[in-house]
Amino acid sequence: MAEVRAEMVANVWRVLVAEGDHVDDGDTLVILESMKMEIPVLTETSGVVAKLHVAEGDVVQEDDLIAVID
Length: 70
Hints:
This protein is 0% helix and 54% strand. By secondary structure, the chain is mainly β.
């Protein structure tokens, strides 16, 4: 089980996966927006999205949990 966490304070602009989706190492899970810059959040492991902890429009803080990959 791997946790994907936010690296900075940002808005969740787009969610590209759903719970139950299979993802591969390097896939983009969500796109964050901060200071008009788009920041893709990538998974570093292959597996299934077990839990998604954000929705479009949410604000994440540094180290907030974004998703769990099982």
